[in-house]
Design brief:
The radius of gyration is 15 Å and the shape is globular. With 180 residues, the protein is an alpha+beta fold. The chain has five helices and seven strands; from the N terminus they run E-H-H-H-E-E-E-H-E-H-E-E. Helix 1 packs antiparallel against helix 2. The chain has a seven-stranded mixed beta sheet. It has a single domain, classed as 3-Layer(aba) Sandwich (Aminopeptidase). The two termini are 30 Å apart. Strand 4, helix 4 and strand 5 form a beta-alpha-beta unit.
């Protein structure tokens, strides 16, 4: 079994993160989204969020010299979407009254179902707790929803995200207390 190393992502990781996102979305969305929805999501929604990297709240998991997963948390208002989707303004949240965001978890299909999502989540939860947050919120893709449910998140709202080319991606806003 490979040893996994979790570290903070930096700008040099962005090309590898973008490749990981493409591989993850294409490889793990089968049965949840059509191929047209996947490609639309990659063009208009999914991608690296460089603000997370700049904030130091985005992590990569490496094994055997390969980037096999990435994910993070945020103290900012944006709930989901990479740079290609989100707006320019991304103000900070109030930890006393608002939930931290769990953001942009992607696992390479070759490394799926080996506990990497849980590994990333525990790192993110510990950091958000240390920053004073008491709850967590995220936008789950349909393929990601089972992972988040297993991590104790519950669905607050089912959503459909319209994309510029007419595709619509289903998802779920999910939340949980930071400690359980």
């Amino acid at each position: 079994m490979s040893a996994f190393a979790v570290r903070r992502a930096d700008a040099r990781d962005l090309p590898a993160i973008e490749a990981l996102i493409r591989d993850s979305v294409r490889g793990l969305s089968e049965g949840f989204y059509t191929s047209a929805e996947v490609e639309s999501g990659l063009a208009h929604l999914f991608g690296a969020d460089t603000q997370l990297v700049r904030d130091g709240t985005y992590f990569v998991v490496e094994a055997d010299g390969a980037l096999c997963a990435a994910g993070g948390w945020s103290a900012r208002r944006t709930l989901f979407g990479g740079d290609v989707f989100k707006g320019a303004e991304d103000p900070y949240l109030d930890p006393a009254t608002e939930p931290a965001r769990i953001r942009a978890f992607f696992v390479h299909p070759a490394w799926a179902r080996r506990g990497l999502g849980r590994l990333l989540f525990e790192r993110c939860r510990a950091e958000a707790r240390a920053a004073g947050f008491r709850s967590l919120e995220l936008m789950a893709t349909l393929p990601g929803e089972p992972l988040y449910a297993a991590l104790g998140f519950t669905v607050r709202e089912r959503v459909r995200v319209p994309l510029p080319d007419g595709a619509v991606l289903g998802g779920a806003v999910m939340s949980r207390p930071i400690d359980d």
